[in-house]
């Protein structure tokens, strides 16, 4: 399975009241990492894009601090007829730490295509995991 990588630097505006990365910001970044993975998975299909359907699991394992990098690794682990399951691992990195698992999640996306009236409909992507 292909791993898609994405990184973010934690800035002061990303912190919560105790000085660590706000959980909602971590989830947002994980959604972007998953989106990038799904985008690559859906190349050469009828689907125009995929939308987040569900966050099936998320676990915050280690605090992440301002100044840390968060390096995301996302991979498609399962594909249904229109759904795509993505595993995302977020690793924190600092000048003292190379790679520690900070958060892990499983997202479900659904492939869609734009209709003539401007709305989107779920569509089969007809793609298998290889």
Average pLDDT over all residues: 95
Radius of gyration: 16 Å
Question: End-to-end distance, in Å?
Answer: 7 Å
Name of the CATH superfamily? Hotdog Thioesterase
Please trace the helix and strand order, writing H or E for each element: EHEEEEE
* Helix-strand category: mainly beta
| Domain unit count | 1
Level-2 CATH architecture: Roll
The main β sheet shows up as: 6 strands, antiparallel
Give the overall silhouette: elongated
Output the CATH topology. Thiol Ester Dehydrase, Chain A
Oligomer: single chain
Helix count equals: 1
Low-pLDDT ranges: none
Short synopsis of the structure:
This protein has one domain (4-122): Roll (Thiol Ester Dehydrase, Chain A), CATH 3.10.129.10. The protein contains one helix and six strands. The protein has one helix at residues 23-41, and strands spanning 4-9, 49-60, 69-79, 83-93, 100-114, 120-122.
How would you describe this protein?
This protein has one domain (4-122): Roll (Thiol Ester Dehydrase, Chain A). The mean pLDDT is 95. It has one helix at 23-41, and strands at 4-9, 49-60, 69-79, 83-93, 100-114, 120-122. By secondary structure, the protein is mainly beta. The protein contains 1 helix and 6 strands. Strands 1, 2, 3, 4, 5 and 6 form a 6-stranded antiparallel beta sheet that branches. It is elongated and about 50 Å long. 15% of the residues lie in helices and 45% in strands.
């Amino acid at each position: 399975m292909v791993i898609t990588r994405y990184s973010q630097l934690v800035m002061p505006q990303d912190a919560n009241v105790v000085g660590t990365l706000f959980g909602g910001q971590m989830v947002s970044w994980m959604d972007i990492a998953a989106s990038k993975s799904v985008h690559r998975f859906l190349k050469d299909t009828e689907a125009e894009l995929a939308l987040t359907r569900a966050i099936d699991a998320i676990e915050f394992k280690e605090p992440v601090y301002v100044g840390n990098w968060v390096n995301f690794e996302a991979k498609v682990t399962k594909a249904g007829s229109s759904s795509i399951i993505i595993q995302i691992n977020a690793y924190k990195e600092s000048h003292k730490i190379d790679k520690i698992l900070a958060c892990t999640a499983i997202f479900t996306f659904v492939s869609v295509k734009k209709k003539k009236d401007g709305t989107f409909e779920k569509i089969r992507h007809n793609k298998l995991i290889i």
